[in-house]
Amino acid sequence: MAGSSTGISFDPWVIAAFLYPVSQLAVFQLVGQLYLTDFLGFALLGFMLRAPDAWHRLSKLRLVFGLLFAWLLSQIITDLVRESPPEDFLRGWAKIAFFGVQIAALWLFLPRKRAYMIAFAIGAAISAALGISEVFVGYEWKFGYSRAAALSLIAAICLGTPKWPILRSLSPVLLAGLSFFVLFQSARSSFIAMLLAAGVCGLIIAVEKWPALQRTIRPPAFAMALIIGIAGGAFVSAGYSSMVQSGALGAEAQQKHEQQTSGDVPLLIGGRSESLISARAIADSPLLGHGSWAKDRRYVELYRSLRLRLGMTVHDYYFQSRELIPTHSYILGAWVEAGLMGALFWLYVFTLPLVAIYALLRRNEPLLPLVAYLAISLMWAIPFSPFGATERFLVAFQLVVLLWVIHFPNHGRTGHGAAKRNR
Q1: What DSSP string runs through 248-290?
Q2: Which residues pair with 324 in a beta bridge?
């Protein structure tokens, strides 16, 4: 069972947990783009399988690995039917298989101590800040700095809470404050994720003040809270649109907003209009995908025509060089490439943050800010972000933390006092 300490000690495994995500800064060109973390995942998994409880722990994730295997099998069948070139299907198969290795390795390692999860978050913050591609120069806050800032702040809160418990109580305010800072850095998605995570923290901390209420929370009450949260998210989105249209967030943000809302689509679709053509590609082949790194100029041209028809901005340089079927989503990307089983995996994963947040309502978890942020970030990314490059390392971390909360429901129930006693 996982340890309870939240402090970083001289345990050498804490150093390993910190360095593990930093290793993704080392990149290799083999079967596509691989990272040192990919190779360390195999080494860590091999080592952790020697633990007496390894197979028992892995058995708790039977459904996760079963759906992941079904996704991989569907991708293999799709590539064989579509006759995908080796350079594409090798990358596609490796992406899914290596992702599974990361989940297994981290699941056997990180939940053994809370300190390991905090150390990993700090390492992930460093890699997010230092690993920004040259393609995103000028957008560093959107593509790295905001995540680094969030994870750094959360790690500081979690590390400081045993000594200064008030930090945990202030976490909603601190996260909300950081969210508004990144909003002015044109990092809209990060702003929404941090603000919603702050709301989750605030709700759970409030519930913790009434233990009788905490013990009696049931799914209907939780569903009502979700409805209120969705309404709050819509309110935040409307507020953002008003602010950016007024120029309060700067000329660059105003120009970007005008481009994304220039057509007959809402902001949420305008910023991720690839989903419109992804849906068409899925409708054309809902069961079998289009193959790893699916290429089809028909969909690219159709995407361009669709944007023109909706009155949206069209950048010809993008469409002249583009061959891949446009996708901008974990779930739609997997569905386009691998077929229905890829989508089913991500649909299941989308439910895990909700289950984890419900579990948090019934326990006094010292890592509340970290779990809340990882849960909300994952829920946002599944429908709205591409699953590329180093995302598999972050998502494996998110899944492991959420599954730990779900599968160890009694851990942390007694609050910080027990945590101190069990160090």
Answers
A1: TT-HHHHHHHHHHTSSSS-HHHHTTTHHHHHHHHHHHSSSB--
A2: 295
Residue 86 backbone dihedrals phi, psi, to 5 degrees: -55, -40
188-208 and 340-360 helices cross at what angle (nearest 10)? Answer: 40
The whole-model pTM stands at: 0.86
DSSP for residue 329 = S
Nearest-angstrom CA–CA distance, 354 and 176: 21
Distances from the Cα of 78 to the Cα of 33, 290, 334, 340, 358, angstroms: 22, 7, 12, 11, 37
Any idea where the domains of the chain sit in the sequence? Answer: 12-255+328-421
C-alpha 24/C-alpha 238 separation (Å) is 37
- 188-226 in b/e burial notation, b at 16+ Cβ within 10 A? bbbbbbbbbbbbbbbbbbebbeeeeebeeeeeeebeebe
In total, the chain counts a number of residues equal to 423
How many C-alpha atoms does 7 have within 13 Å on its Cβ side?
12
Tokens found for residue 32: 């596509």
pLDDT in tens, 115-150: 999 999 999 999 999 988 777 777 788 888 999 999
CB-based burial, 269-286: b 16+ in 10 Å, e otherwise: bbbbbbbbbbebbbeebe
> Which has the closest alpha carbon to 405: 376, 378, 366?
366
Judge whether 119 and 15 are in contact, CB under 8 Å: yes
Q: Please report the DSSP string for 357-386 in residue order.
A: HHHHTTS--TTHHHHHHHHHHHHHHHHHS-
Pick from 152, 159, 161: nearest CA to 125:
152
Helix (H) or strand (E) holding 35: strand 32-35
d(CA 278, CA 284): 10
**Quick one: which of 92, 147, 107 has its CA closest to 124?**
147
pLDDT grade for 348, boundaries at 50, 70 and 90: very high
Type of residue found at 327: T
Q: Tokens for 21? A: 């995500």
61 token code pair: 């994730």
What pLDDT digit, counting tens, does each position of 200-225 carry?
Answer: 999 899 888 887 766 677 677 677 66
